[in-house]
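Notes from hallway chat w/ T.B., transcribed later so I don't forget. T.B. wanted the structure written out for a chain they're using in a teaching module, and asked if we could keep both sequence and structure tokens in one place. Agreed to drop them here.
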Amino acid sequence: MKQYYILTYGCQMNTYDSHLMELLLEEHGYVQAGDIEHADVVIVNTCAVREHAVKRVLSRIDSLKTLKRKNPSLRLGIAGCVPQQLKARITKKRPFVDFILGPDNLKDVVMCAQGASGLFVDLNDTPLYSDLYPANGDFPEAYVSVMRGCINFCSYCIVPYTRGKDKSRRIHDIKREVEKLALKGYKRIVLLGQNVNNYDDHEKRLPHLLSEIAHINAIERIGFLTSHPAFFPIEVIDVMKEEPKIEKCIHLPLQSGSSKILRRMNRIYTKDHYRELINEIRTRIDDIALTTDIIVGFPGETEDDFSETMEMVNGIRFDSAYMFQYSPRRFTLASTYCSSIDTETRMRRLHELIRVQSEITRQKSNASRGRILDVLIIGENEKNYLESNAISVYNKRIVVQGRFESGTIRKVRIIDVKGWTPVGKPLQEHE
């Protein structure tokens, strides 16, 4: 039997796309290789969101040239956003690559694995792959795509150019996929979209979708990614409050605390709008967990602009944040801006932001001591076989004392915090 091996880089949507390719290959008799050395087909599924990610991916692709020399019959393919963006560069400089698949062309993976070579990178009306149900994931958690593509055109972002316009799946297709996951024993589902707030199935939007998924009995936890502050439907918070299965956590990218920089980013909202939205969310669910993305060193960002970002971070007090220095992406509007910030300044601002947010995250973790939480066991702790890894309804990773079966719910009391990670002790029946 032919064996495949897929290397995945990037976001949760890339992980989901890899599962789609796995399903297609396995339906045609391929099996997953135990290691890359024994594979007949190797696919690198890539991310182009930042320059560092692209360089890392290209370096990994180059390292596979040796593998190809050892095994000339190996089929080597590149998938995802990098080849969609840099197709000519890859084909010219890396002739050892047999095939290239864009995000809209994943159904060609079997044909390519069997011998077809060349570029398959047409952006053709954003296929939803709704006839495919991968029912795959890192048990007991799985991602489910509810929409694909994006039309926001933030000035720094390459996604609209690599994944095309946004398009939503039908609710009954999404429910069928989640039901298949439930039958396999999966307990936590994360609904994915580049801008999940734009989900729309014939006027049935995200709040309706969340309610429908919550009615699937075997599913214990439901999350969703990623929200956009300009389009966030506040009704979602009411559904979260009513449905105990829906995690009390929202990832809401701020990107900058300066309204001037937000305009240059084409983010559509102001810092005041963002702050008002946070206040409204916390009014409805006071202990909700909030996470975010922040970019520093965007072209034109002054020290005053950066100070405004720091004021927002200190004022809102996010539970955690993904923090980056600006990375110019080819074809985007921001790549044409002349007022670039030097590397030293970008790094200084990033280090300052990380320092402040890390302290806030540490304080929030310490504040959880003594709380009693229902947590979902997601596996053994790789550092200590006498402990288990778990996740709370606030999307917080927790270490639980004791070994428990993945997919079960345990009630624990937080008794310690190691670094940023709370440690829970299971409650006894009488507690």
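Follow-up for T.B.: The domain at 249-367 is CATH 3.30.750.200 (Transcription Regulator spoIIAA). Might be a good example for the class.
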